[in-house]
Amino acid sequence: MIGKIGNNCSYCGEQLVPTKLLYPISEKNYNSNPFIKDQWNILGQAIDQAYALTIFGYGAPKSDIEAVNLMKKAWGKIEDRSMEQIEIIDIKDDEELANTWSEFIFSHHYGTHKSFLDSHLCKVPRRSIEAYYEMFFNANFIDLHEYPKNASFEQLTTFIQNLTKYEN
Fold it and tell me: For 7-23, b where at least 16 C-beta lie within 10 A, e where not — what string?
């Protein structure tokens, strides 16, 4: 079970404990730890079913072969992902990012951003996939409801509550 450290598991009642960290080594053996194996399985299922994939600051280092292979296996062949969109949020050069993630990108179906605030997820929160679909399939644009910049958690909470009311 996952949750906040110190809370109790809703299934067995035991107190939750920290999981093992994965250090940058060449062979991580994701299958040796049941929790980590489950998390990778969940990620694989999510990637397999995804229409869009957002990558936050992960450079897919050469030492992380196993992780990249797990993601590539879940994503499949890019020829079979001709309509999916990749969004990469990273401070690296755009061309470097496109090269790093080329095995996930079909043609020009990707975007790179230096900041989350410039990303599609930020510009169309809670409706990013709907917005992609409208733009790429129907050539329509939906209203943007961008996260407010430099907002406090309280302001963000109010923003999301108002956005939820608007959507309903």
Answer: eeeeeeeeeeeeeeeee
What is the 3-state secondary structure of 74-134?
A: HHCCHHHHCCCEEEEECCCCHHHHHHHCCCCCCCCCEEEECCHHHCHHHHCCCCHHHHHHH
Contact present, 122 and 147 (Cβ < 8 Å):
yes
Q: Are strands 110-113 and 85-89 parallel, antiparallel or unpaired?
A: parallel
**Against a cut of 0.90, is the pTM above it?**
no
71, 78 contact by CB (below 8 A): no
- How far is 122 from 118, CA to CA, in rounded Å? 7
* Domain count for the chain: 1
pLDDT in tens, 118-158: 998 888 887 888 888 888 889 888 878 888 888 999 999 99
Amino acid symbol at 88? I
Whether residue 139 is contained in a domain is answered as: yes
Domain hosting 151: range is 123-168
Question: Is 117 domain-assigned?
Answer: no
